[in-house]
Amino acid sequence: MTRIAIFADAHFPDRPDTVKDTVFEWVVHETARRQVDYLVGAGDLTSIGTAAAARRLRQKAGALPLLLTPGNADLRSPAETAACLEILQTSQMQDNIVLLDTSAIRLSPASRALLAELPPQGNRIAVTHCPHHYLPSEDQQLLAECLADQTITTLVSGHIHRDEDNGPYQVTCGIDPDKALGGPPAIIIMDNASGSWQREDIACDFADPRTWAIAERTEWLGFLGISGMKDTLAALAAAAEHCVPSFEIRAAESLALPATALAAAMDAWRRRGGRHLSIHLPTIGLNADGAVSVPDIMPASLEMARQVRAHAVTIHPPAAPVAALRSDSSLYASMLDAFAHTLAPLVKDGIVIGIENMHLRRDEPADEQRFFGYTPQECREWIAALRQRLGNEAVGFLLDIGHARNNRSLASRYNVSEWYAELGAWLTGCHLHQFTVLDGKAQGHCPLKKLFGHAISLSSFFIAWQQGQLARVPMYLEIRTEPAIESYLALRDILS
User: Fold this and answer.
1) What's the CA gap between 60 and 7, in Å, rounded?
2) How far is Cα 301 from Cα 282, in angstroms, rounded to an integer?
3) Residue 288 class from Cβ within 10 Å (0-12 exposed, 13-18 middle, 19+ buried)?
4) Measured between alpha carbons, how far is residue 478 from residues 318, 360, 430, 433, 435 in Å?
5) Shortest CA distance to 444 belongs to which of 418, 412, 480?
6) Which of helix, strand or coil describes residue 334?
7) Mind spelling out the 3-state secondary structure of 12-52?
8) What angle is formed at CA 270 by the lines to CA 446 and CA 427, rounded to 5 degrees?
9) What SS3 class is residue 435?
10) Are the CB atoms for 248 and 225 separated by under 8 Å?
């Protein structure tokens, strides 16, 4: 009998303090506890294919018998690919286990040659990164032939971050708590004691808040709120009806409303348990001449924050190219002056300022021609600079999880888990929303009614929250395509 534990899509980063380490430690513990013959990694072992991350994964695995095959993520840093793959190299054939390399989204020549040399043998299992239906037709045909003539009897893969069970074709959702969809991160145990390979899924229980004590779930829900991105008065009425504790309004939309109607709606919400109010301010950026520009509605927005007794405000980082801010120290200083001067009155009123991370827009380059504030380090830099002007308690970080995850090429370099590790202690609030891809284009601010997907999994958020890596702050469901209250009620029903 052979018994193996398979994990996929670890996406291990260089830094050692993310919840991905916590999950991999769980993998190692479960593997040792269940006395398997081998721990098998089905690709995307590292986040961007660095030698440091590969080395850390091998060290974390300790003395466990380890078999590994790479994935496409392990090729993302060309200058380090050779070193990364050398560190991850293990035997590609052990007992009745064969590892196939599909890191280039096709069977490597070596893997095709290996399959051609293997004699038919019942109960041989193959492990690779890409599911068969992601491979070129000639590779799909070869694998089908190998299954038909019993060269292999089962093929296990990862890559798509969700489970599939299609007879001989098995897919695991993987162990990345940022991306595992349909459920929490999981490993699968495969054994052939019955004469054929049988699958057992082992989920990471602490990544699933449904396993938490009721007091912990109640506490989390006590911080959950909604954003009135559209139809602010209707959103406030829904928040009052359902006793939503936290609410965020947008300054531009709210200033267009009758002041008496807005005040009445807020009073009704507060009478029904509303506790924390935030205002999303307009963005400070550059005008057509390249000079720093504060929006005309900013003074009225700040006055409204005081009038409605807001606890916090959210504002984007400077809407300016990284290259412009880096190359022109006077522009950087002018931008910082504009932020500090504009926001200083809020500090006097005890209103906390949250700087929100942004993301690469469609067709925006990932180099320094992009705008500022798309990486954890840039957000930390700007917050630290403002803290020197306004005080440490006055300025913090508003984490938009959807922006961090939907950050195109930067999302791999700066995983959501890395945002938590870098800035979780500085949080003033969070924006929660899902994103989807329509006609090849990512669309953000979609409903978030499930804990684990379909593009963003909240597993890493829950782990970081429970471990204290994230400050306890209000969370706003920031939904554009339908009333946010629908996502709020869905999550509340799941966790109540």
Assistant:
1) 14
2) 8
3) exposed
4) 21, 18, 9, 6, 11
5) 480
6) helix
7) ECCCCCCHHHHHHHHHHHHHHHCCCCEEEEECCCECCCCHH
8) 55
9) strand
10) yes
| Four-CA torsion 46, 49, 54, 57, nearest 10 degrees | -10
Domains of the chain: 3-207 (3.60.21.10), 211-495 (3.20.20.150)
Beta bridge partners of 279: 249, 313
Give the DSSP H or E segment for 237. helix 232-241
Kindly compute the dihedral angle of the four CA atoms of residues 57, 37, 191, 128, in this order, to the nearest 10 degrees.
Answer: 40
- Give pLDDT, residue 40: 98
Q: What is the chain's pLDDT, residue by residue, as a tens digit (496 residues)?
A: 899 999 999 999 999 999 999 999 999 999 999 999 999 999 999 999 999 999 999 999 999 999 999 999 999 999 999 999 999 999 999 999 999 999 999 999 999 999 999 999 889 999 999 999 999 999 999 999 999 999 999 999 999 999 999 999 999 999 999 999 999 999 999 999 998 999 999 999 999 999 999 999 999 999 999 999 889 999 999 999 999 999 999 999 999 999 999 999 999 999 999 999 999 999 999 999 999 999 999 999 999 999 999 999 999 999 999 999 999 999 999 999 999 999 999 999 999 999 999 999 988 999 999 999 999 999 999 999 999 999 999 999 999 999 999 999 999 999 999 999 999 999 999 999 998 877 777 788 999 999 998 889 999 999 999 999 999 999 999 999 999 999 999 999 999 9
DSSP conformational letter for 298: H
Tokens of 319: 């809407």
Return the bridge partners of 319, or none: 285
Location of structure tokens 């590292």: 46
φ/ψ of residue 372, rounded to 5: -80, 150
Give me the DSSP letters along 345-386. Answer: HHHHTT-EEEEEP--PPTT--SSTTSBS--SHHHHHHHHHHH
β-sheet bridge partners, residue 38: 4
CA distances to 219, 240, 277, 300, 422 from 312, in Å: 20, 19, 7, 16, 21
Q: Yes or no: say if 374 and 358 are a contact pair by the CB < 8 Å rule.
A: yes
How far is it, in rounded angstroms, from Cα 396 to Cα 337?
A: 17
CA distance 101 to 181: 24
| Angle between helical axes of 232-241 and 484-495 (0-180°, round to 10) | 20
Strands 3-7 and 38-42: parallel
